[in-house]
Write a structure and sequence with these properties.
16 helices, mainly alpha
Length: about 325
Amino acid sequence: MFWSDFHFDGLTLSYLTIGLAMTMLAVWNGRKTLRGHKQWPRFIITVLFFCAGYGLAILSGGLKMLLLGWEIMGIASFLLIILHRDFKDSGVPTPGRPTFGIPAKAFFIYRLGDVGLLLAMWASHHLGRENAAVVSLLVLVTASMQSSQLPFCSWLPQALQNTTTAGAIVLATLTVQMGVFLLLRSYPFWEHQLSIRMLIGVLGFVAAAMAAGAARVQSSVKRRVAYVSMAHTGLIFIEVAAGFKSLALIHVAANAFLGAYRLLVPPALVPASAGKSAHLNKRTWEDRLPKKLKYTIYMFYTKEWGLYARLSKYLRP
């Protein structure tokens, strides 16, 4: 009876491979930056705890086992966000160190998605196949929250900005992609519901457009990586909605390795091609926009369209 709660297929193998590679990269980076500090043992224990939840989630054969792994991953993710809150030897001045409130807000926004999974479990047992659209909608809400998509798409930049690089690798490459995993695992349940597929595609398109624009105005490498990861995840949502599951898995792996690479090898502040572009004096499509419209769009992207500010009014630690 116990073993019937687990399921192994190509989707599980793909996520196991990605998870193993990203965990090794995170531990390798943590060993370089945290070893010798008191955060190092805490980081190792937290990563092992996260891996336990990650394994239960991707090997789950039902919603109960998935929920157990989901909860463990959520707790471990929060511990990774607050890992360096008392990191004294990092070279970061104490006055500029982020407060505990910002990670707490990101954690609560992220954990709100679990309500959708719990309601999906209840609806699947009590409502049956007659209300499959309700269950599918709850699954989509959970996946959107987990993958930092609309409407709660601001927790990932806040989380990455307030954690170590090793923790950011885990959050940006594994935690975020679990929303895609949930959609792929539940694909046979909603594949014949055209309205749900269209809704997934629209949400993915809008989130990808918003995140791609927000990534261009970020001065922090971690926040830029977060928005780029969100943009790619939005495109993956579109691929899943269109039924391209193999392409979506390839995109998940590529997005994970790209995010890890950008975190481990931050880009130069001034690209080598900057002088050449200035010499050619080429105008982009943004330069052709009216100044007022261009500045308005810039302010919207800088303020993240006000999503995090509005949520912060109701999430006070």
